[in-house]
Amino acid sequence: MDNLNYGVIGNCRSAAMISERGSVDWYCTPEFDSSSIFGKLLDKNIGGSFEIHVDKKYFIRQRYIPRTNILVTTYKKNEHCFEIMDFMPRYILDDGTHYSPPDLVRYIRLVSGTPQFRVIYDPKLEYARFKTHTVIRPKYIKSYTTKGTYDSVYLYSNLDKQKIVCSDLIDLEDDSYFLISYNQKILKQDTERCYLKYQRTKVYWMNWSERTVRFKRYNNEILRSALVLKMLSYDKSGAILAALTTSLPETIGEVRNWDYRFCWIRDASMAIRVLTKLGHMNVAKNYLRFILNIIPDKDEKIQIMYGINGEKKLTERIMDHLSGYEDSTPVRVGNDAYKQKQNDIYGVLMDVLYQQFQAFETSLQNSESLWTITRSIVRIVKHNWYKADRGIWELRTEQRHFTFSKVLCWVAVDRAIKIARLINMHEYLEGWEKLRDKIRNDVIENAWNENKQSFTQAYENADIDAANLLMESYGFIDAKDPKFISTVHATQRELGNNGLMYRYKNDDDFGTPSSAFTICTFWLINSLYKIGEKDQAEMMFEKMLNYSNHLGLYSEDLDFKSKRLLGNFPQAYSHLALIETAISIAEGTVTKDEEVLENLM
């Protein structure tokens, strides 16, 4: 049984997944949502990979350089030892711009002895739909297609190119490198240049980490998750991806396989909310730029999701030629959920806009445009809050009056009122306050179930939904309110399973869900802590930390019994929920004085 024991490297333009043995099994370039050149993750036979093979006597260990997104895989056998530092270059140039080329660098550091390894270099461009040809040129190895969409990629190395292509045994006698580039390089590539890129990239990530707010507990876990969220941000547009992969199944052998390489307004807004708490305002500013670019007109419908460059049409296609992760089909590219109506997105987006108005009250750029968006959202909510929608879990075949959607409509109007007060637009308050109260009263009257002693998933059913645990964190209800406390207990009782949580247990488009949704377990832990059951919450949180992979990364789902990671990876949702829960339990940040004292000890 495989687990998602992968490290992830990236540079806010693209990213790659590297197995615990050092095999690049997923890499899309030149951008996150481009077609794959290594896709072994989705088809072990034809997907393509870039592997380092050593004999069975080698001990292999993998780790991140602390406070960076640089991955180190160490290979050791007796006195023979070498390390591969995998990274995608990202650093700031003299003119203040970021250098983030569509490159993947594998810097090989000789530690001791004369280690030996073989290279399996097997790119399969364009999702391996057609044959990829690989040829050796004087300066590089080029791989390209001749059928279908033309694509090509270049491999630079100081090692013997013939041995690389033929997978012959290589004796490592000095530091070396591999550099995969989407573009042909103009400057000469050598080991020294790659080492300089490595050092500059390390400095970039360490500087970014240094600017992250520190907490009294769980600081390492918070920082690793923050680094994941940063890596899922797309510099060019400001979009935040839901995950780096497509079609990793929620349950092995089933069909809940989706492409997550897009920007969901909900997921991205939640991620921005968390990163802002951690002190990273530039990511928030970039995301606001994305929002302004995708909503240019006052009457423009806001989609639930967009392409990372703002694309509005994300047509779903099936890759029939790929066998899928552990033979779980179909493999999908694109996501038809972009057509759905989900009313909760207005609340999470407005919550972020309100935070930005607070943070940049006197100097917020584009404030007039954001105020226009605010009024547009209230207008949309006014005409839609009472209608059924697909809900946060994106049901494909039916619409319901989901409680969470109604609550987030309340959030949208509530935050709009707060914004109006901040900028002295008092003439809007009376009408908006009436709308807010009307939505709240409707939820209290229709979503509360006396028999269950809980708020339920939808007005028309008595099912429990983990999303309602967020009612408190968005300010709809107080943590001490008996109805919220009772809802937390009912949710744990009905959706808990072996220490993990279902999203819901009622049938959806594909039957009954059969895996744990990672974010929901974190939501429960956070809620338990807030209602005063701190010991239980901390115990559950410690267990959840043990369910990450070997590098502290999480996917979307967990298997209830084995605790193996399932679903797309790494999942922004899961990591942002970890951060929020850890912040609650940590109960306070590290002050400057404490930080100085810690460094002296």
Distance between the termini: 44 Å
Class inferred from helices and paired strands:
alpha+beta
The CATH topology assignment of the largest domain is: Glycosyltransferase
Look at the structure and give the mean pLDDT: 93
- Bin the strand percentage: 15-25%
Task: Please describe what this structure looks like.
The mean pLDDT is 93. Helix 3 runs antiparallel to helix 13, helix 4 (265-277) runs parallel beside helix 13 and helix 11 runs antiparallel to helix 12. This protein has two domains: 6-209, Beta-galactosidase, Chain A, domain 5; 211-591, Glycosyltransferase. It has 14 helices and 28 strands. An eight-stranded antiparallel β-sheet has the order 6-7-8-11-17-15-14-13. The protein has a four-stranded antiparallel β-sheet with strand order 1-2-3-4, with no helix packed on it. With 601 residues, the chain is an alpha+beta fold.
SSE blueprint:
Elements: E1 6-10, E2 15-19, E3 24-28, E4 36-38, E5 49-53, E6 59-64, E7 71-77, E8 80-87, E9 91-92, E10 98-99, E11 103-112, E12 116-122, E13 132-136, E14 141-145, E15 152-157, H1 161-166, E16 170-171, E17 176-181, H2 191-210, H3 219-231, E18 263-264, H4 265-277, H5 281-294, E19 305-306, E20 317-318, E21 332-333, H6 345-359, H7 367-384, H8 403-422, H9 429-447, E22 448-449, E23 454-455, H10 482-495, E24 496-497, E25 500-501, E26 516-517, H11 518-530, H12 534-545, E27 557-558, E28 565-566, H13 572-586, H14 592-600
Antiparallel strand pairs: 1-2, 2-3, 3-4, 5-12, 6-7, 7-8, 8-11, 9-10, 11-17, 12-16, 13-14, 14-15, 15-17, 18-19, 20-21, 22-23, 24-25, 26-27, 27-28
